[in-house]
Amino acid sequence: MATPNEELAAVAAVVSRSTVQVRSRRFSGGSGVIWHSNLIITNDHVVRGARATVELSDGRVFDAVCTSRDPQRDLAALTIDATDLPVATIGDSDALRVGELVVAVGNPLGMIGALSTGIIHAVAPKDISRRWVQADIRLAPGNSGGPLADVQGRVIGINTVIAGGLALAVPSNAVDRFLRLGKERLYLGVTIQSVLVPLSNKRVFGLLILEVRQNSLAESAGLLTGDVLIGFNDQFFNAPKDVAQALLQINSCDTLQLDFVRGGRRMTCEMRLHGGDKPGAEAA
User: Fold this and answer.
1) Smallest Cα–Cα separation from 177: which of 75, 279, 36?
2) For residue 158, with 0-12 CB atoms within 10 Å meaning exposed, 13-18 middle and 19 or more buried, which class applies?
3) What is the SS3 assignment for 199?
4) pLDDT digits (tens, 9 = 90+) for 145-182
């Protein structure tokens, strides 16, 4: 029977094979994960332009093209002209529990394939638009874009930043949403105007719908001109950009509860992005 040390070393070897170096200019770089086929996920701040250089764990070097990016979530997708790559096993970040042992693999400070271990410190609730996995784990420059994995070797996050001594990683399920949405951002398909609306004896920030586009998410959800959007999943909006944050919650499985006021009454509607639906083409 393998000892705990041997088991951890085996996990490190598996995760390291699907971890790559990403360099976008001479003196900068980070890490990346072979997510599937010839596609590599890294941080947006690691990739400075449309192209980068990727070095695999076996020493092979490829030119890479950035095919999509989301600066808000600090994610970028790269493709390389290669086949039979050691693809990572992706885990379910929604199933994480505080206290679970995790490992991080990357290239900090020029050390190739370095391993750190720690535990899950916290996982943001599902209804938070910009979720992070927080881990009590040691990272350094060069770890950005690399994998945070569980002890089965399943990647459950992309290491992104250190805050307050904790590593923050983009959850694996958020990466999957990013890839499903691709280059196109979802749009609600409305024209809006910021207003204050009376609600429960106080005035709250709202977004008055001036126009609803045909064949848009808003139309399919039953929103009408004159409705005032006030929040989603019981969180109030504070600025127009919060609508885009809300839409990041939608994928092929998730629903989004949108809160609005119609005729002085608070109401809700649910949105789901089905396989063939097309987002609206305009503003919000």
Assistant:
1) 75
2) buried
3) strand
4) 999 999 999 999 999 998 888 999 999 999 998 887 76
Query: Could you say which of 16, 18, 93, 144 is catalytic?
Result: 144
Q: How far apart are CA 217 and CA 280, in angstroms?
A: 6
Beta-carbon contacts of 72 under 8 Å, excluding residues fewer than 6 positions away, are 130, 244, 248
Catalytic annotation, pick one of 74, 176, 227, 259 = 74
Please enumerate in sequence order all residues whose Cβ is within 8 A of that of 5, keeping only pairs 6 or more positions apart, or say none.
Answer: none
Tell me, rounded to whole angstroms, the distance of Cα 264 from its chain centroid.
Answer: 36
Contacts of 1 (CB under 8 A, 6+ apart): none
Q: What is the pLDDT of residues 76-117, one digit of tens each?
A: 999 999 988 999 999 999 999 999 999 999 988 778 888 899
Q: How far is CA 40 from CA 23, 56, 117, 217, 247, in A?
A: 13, 11, 23, 30, 24
Catalytic, 274? Answer no
Cα separation, 229 vs 68, in Å, equals: 30
DSSP class per residue in 59-83: S-EEEEEEEEEETTTTEEEEEES--
pTM for the structure as a whole: 0.67
Active-site pick, 45, 68, 136, 277:
45
Q: Using the predicted structure, report yes or no on whether residue 244 has a pLDDT greater than 80.
A: no
- Return the SS3 of 228: strand
CA nearest neighbour of 207 among 221, 193, 187: 193
For the question of residue 242 being annotated catalytic, the response is no
45 is catalytic: yes
Structure tokens at 205: 């920030």
Contact present, 90 and 66 (Cβ < 8 Å)? no
Tell me the backbone φ, ψ of residue 173, rounded to 5 degrees: -70, -30
Residue at 122: amino acid letter: A
